[in-house]
Amino acid sequence: MKCVISVLGKDRSGVVAAIATVLADCGANIDDISQTILGEGRMFSMTMMVTLDPAVADFNTVQERLTAAGEELGMQVIIQREDVFQMMYKI
């Protein structure tokens, strides 16, 4: 299952590593990743396209683990199924 993950919050070290570790532990593959620092280094923004392996961890499990990681990092982490994401922006 393809999913889009968005991460947003105050820039700090270890964000990519923490999110990637959760995904690896859940058997997910990072297909694409884009990140940037906004506002003179104050705001971190990252978007990822990932493929989940439901045999290892279902969507809800990955979502719960990413939310927990985001809370530990002080960041907002949102995961959406790609099909839902695409439908939201269809005109």
Descriptive account of the structure:
The protein is α+β, with helices and mostly antiparallel strands and 91 residues long. It contains three helices and four strands. It has helices spanning 15-25, 59-73, 82-88; strands at 2-10, 29-38, 43-51, 75-81. The chain has a four-stranded antiparallel sheet with strand order 2-3-1-4. The chain is globular, with a radius of gyration of 13 Å.
How would you write the strand order of the largest sheet? 2-3-1-4
> Roughly what fraction of the amino acids lie in strands?
35-45%
> In this structure, how is the largest beta sheet organized?
4 strands, antiparallel
Radius of gyration: 13 Å
Helix percent band: 25-40%
Sequence stretches where pLDDT stays below 50 over 5 or more residues: none
Alpha plus pi helix count: 3
Order of helix and strand elements from N to C terminus = EHEEHEH
Quaternary organization: single chain
Overall form: globular
Average pLDDT, rounded to a whole number, is 92
What is the SS-derived class?
alpha+beta
For the secondary structure, the number of strands is 4
Distance between the termini: 23 Å
